[in-house]
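Appendix C: a fully annotated inverse folding record. The material below is reproduced so that readers can follow the format used throughout the book. The structure is listed first as tokens, followed by the designed sequence.
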């Protein structure tokens, strides 16, 4: 869809041309100068009169009215040149892309160089452009008889630049991959529990493996029983749907070493089990596989961009239901690792399924672990709805995840994790661990429980209970699933180990 063209954008015929404008340029240069020249100083006049604003994130539409081959000039205010960040650019692009529906256009174009600064390279601008276009125009079609698909589809997006066209094309591809992987995760999270069971998730993973040539292993219930995966099996006991342990392997190095394990909570619906959620708390729990979706979205990006890394993705998939066979508070179960767990709360099921998944990831050679999970309501109380909570047993690994999160524009905040926390998850009188040591600091407790299974393997835990969905639409997408951590995970994998060398 994206085409790079090394030519003067204003000599062409276009339906809609996106142009970046900084506040108070001393004089126009580059593509803006070409524009001003072509229209006899009119740009200078329009900026002076205030008809075109350069204020950050403002959008000014100027019609060519037949005087130009370009039908609409859409100026995107970027504020002061030195203040523009990659993040801000992404949001500015996102905001304008969301408005495009109103224009009823089939083609788009941009004068890319007008977005470039000392800090934001042409490649950065290209990456931000394709990524935000794809994120901002995402919709979940849903199931209405009259669907809410957009009436107009953009067929081509021409990117005019004086920079190296191969490099800019490659950056557009990277941005597209990041956007598409995120959108795939959004769709998985938005899909209701009856339409995305563990079986459906396994089917989805199989298709992904086919498309990107991943090795795949899907453990069925009988195999899990044989292996002794008592924690995920306990969570699944009340369900009519079979559980699956889904494993995807991507080998980007000659040898299977330095393996990164990505583990995502795949609870397709969380009723709470016998520790039943109140009726208002159950609504929305189709999103409880947001961690799995983040891992699958990141694997899609990895499959497209094929970094020189080794990755094993492990997804424990089941729902958490009630029935005569369901597990109960007070039950003691034996996890795959051998550690026994006293179940004090069947609603603390995420840490149980993750326990077995983490152990399995290690068996598959994972030497570094990142788990992602909609794990606790506690993280929302602690950090609000816009920050992902983190816990780690390894500073260096956490630094790498944090760096990736900055680049992705996804906020992470680390919670403390001390020996006292470890003592609390080990405080059961009759088992090695207990799955719910009380509400105090319970986002930390959830992570600390998972840490018992990571053991000495460097590990970062990401609790996305607050960030996996949003209540209202934003510059880079609609309300509902955000696809949070897809890009952080993908960037983390792409850049892994580069910091130390
Ligand atoms: N899936 C929930 C966490 C959650 C809550 C996600 C709200 C999104 C929004 C998780 O399984 C859960 O129920 N956690 C409990 C743990 C508690 C029982 C220790 C919680 O946070 O209340
Ligand atoms: Mn729960
Ligand atoms: Zn849950």
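Designed amino acids, in order:
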């Amino acid at each position: 869809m994206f085409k790079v063209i090394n030519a003067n954008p204003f000599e062409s015929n276009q339906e809609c041309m996106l142009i970046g404008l900084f506040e108070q340029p001393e004089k126009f240069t580059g593509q803006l100068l070409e524009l001003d020249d072509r229209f006899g100083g009119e740009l200078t006049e329009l900026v002076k009169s205030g008809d075109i604003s350069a204020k950050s994130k403002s959008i000014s539409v100027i019609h060519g009215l037949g005087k130009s081959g370009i039908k609409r000039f859409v100026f995107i205010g970027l504020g002061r040149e030195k203040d523009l960040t990659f993040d801000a650019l992404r949001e500015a692009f996102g905001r304008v892309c969301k408005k495009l529906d109103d224009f009823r256009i089939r083609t788009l174009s941009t004068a890319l160089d007008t977005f470039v600064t000392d800090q934001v390279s042409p490649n950065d601008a290209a990456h931000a452009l394709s990524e935000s276009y794809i994120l901002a125009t995402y919709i979940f079609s849903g199931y209405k008889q009259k669907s809410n698909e957009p009436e107009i589809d953009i067929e081509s997006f021409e990117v005019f630049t004086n920079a190296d066209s191969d490099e800019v094309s490659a950056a557009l591809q990277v941005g597209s991959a990041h956007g598409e992987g995120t959108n795939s995760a959004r769709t998985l999270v938005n899909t209701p529990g009856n339409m995305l069971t563990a079986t459906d998730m396994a089917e989805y993973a199989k298709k992904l493996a086919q498309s990107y040539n991943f090795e795949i292993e899907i453990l069925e219930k009988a195999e899990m029983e044989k292996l002794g995966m008592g924690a995920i099996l306990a969570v699944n006991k009340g369900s009519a749907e079979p559980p699956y342990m889904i494993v995807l392997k991507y080998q980007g190095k000659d040898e299977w070493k330095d393996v990164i394990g990505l583990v995502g909570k795949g609870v397709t619906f969380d009723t709470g089990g016998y520790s039943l959620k109140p009726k208002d708390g159950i609504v929305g729990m189709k999103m409880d596989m947001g961690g799995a979706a983040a891992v699958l979205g990141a694997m899609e990006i990895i499959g497209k961009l094929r970094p020189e890394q080794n990755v094993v993705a492990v997804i424990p998939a089941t729902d958490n239901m009630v029935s005569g066979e369901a597990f109960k508070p007070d039950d003691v179960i034996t996890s795959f690792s051998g550690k026994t767990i006293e179940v004090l709360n069947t609603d603390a099921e995420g840490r149980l399924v993750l326990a077995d998944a983490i152990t399995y990831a290690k068996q598959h050679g994972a030497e570094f672990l990142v788990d992602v999970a909609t794990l606790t309501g506690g993280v929302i109380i602690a950090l609000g709805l816009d920050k992902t909570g983190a816990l780690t047993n390894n500073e260096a690994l956490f630094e790498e995840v944090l760096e990736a999160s900055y680049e992705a524009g996804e906020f992470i905040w680390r919670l403390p994790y001390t020996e006292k926390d470890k003592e609390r998850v080990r405080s059961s009188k009759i088992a090695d661990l207990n799955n719910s040591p009380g509400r105090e600091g319970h986002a930390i407790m959830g992570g600390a429980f998972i840490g018992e299974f990571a053991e000495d393997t460097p590990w970062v835990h990401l609790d996305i209970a607050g960030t996996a969905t949003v209540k209202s639409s934003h510059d880079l997408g609609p309300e509902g699933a955000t696809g949070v951590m897809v890009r952080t995970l993908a960037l983390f994998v792409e850049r892994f180990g580069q910091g130390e060398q």
